[in-house]
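Exercise 3.2. Students should predict the tertiary structure of the chain below and write it as structure tokens, then compare their answer with the key that follows.

Predict this chain's 3D structure.
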Amino acid sequence: MMAVYYLLFCAGTFLTGICGETQLGFQGYTKYEPGDINIIITAPHGGGLTPSSQANGDDWPDRKNGCKDASGTCIYTHSCSPTSSKCSARTVRDSFTKTIARDLADKIRDITEGSTRPHVVYNLLKRSKLDANREINEATLNVPDAITAYNDYANFISQAKLAISGSGSGRGFLLDIHGQTHQPPRTELGYLISKSKLVQKSYNVVGTSIRNLGEYWCGSNNACFQDFVQGNRSLGYFVNQEGLAAVPSPLDEDPNGEKFFSGGYTTRVHGSKDGGNIDAIQLELPRELRFEWNRNVALQNALANAIVKFYQLNYDA
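Answer key:
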């Protein structure tokens, strides 16, 4: 069940620049701002809503660690016992990522002179209630209202992908926005490529979340594909060009032994790993960037510029 508000249009009165009708999911727990460029921005961990009860009056407890069954498989319900640290349910919010997702879309619209704005999908629930970047059981602890919100979020992404598939080349990409506190502070770009494979350059197109991008330009030529991950056709390259640190990129080809997030559920499921024309990249933004974001317009412009240049070279050509 979704509530759809007929308020927001590209030339609308309320939020100029958002294209089509902004849609709110069940109880306003998720939101979709349709766009008109082949880019999707998702923010699964930036929400702040913390309902204590569900729509029918039942309690809505916070997510907790799951338990292992007899086969060692993690199960996620509030009634299971004992819980296991091996079945952890992370609940830490990625601060400012909801705002960053919105601002990036607005800045991309401004850079393209008001002609295009990405699709944006938000989870507005706090991560303690719903983790929209996990499979459904871990994400929801099988709370019915959380399941409904989870499905709304996934359906909004599918709507955006369908819109892109039916426009222009049908090719595009999704940016899944997250936050991390690793050192040194740099934006970590997740393509489902592990640290060791980045070090050894032993990855290939198949199995990555940007498979479509690689096969479109390189076929099965892995040496060519490396340029889209660590070289001068990569998003990391354009982030570097704007004066920002990123890994992988020409300046930091691999994490050099430091902690690194290589991608998660959204990049696996909504990227092109298993086919399709929509790629996915996980953007893990450092704490320093996120906490500086609201007061640094130059920083906002820099990251948006990098995304636009990456898009124009690789998807709009």
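Discussion points: The first strand starts at residue 3 and ends at 4. The chain has ten helices and eleven strands.
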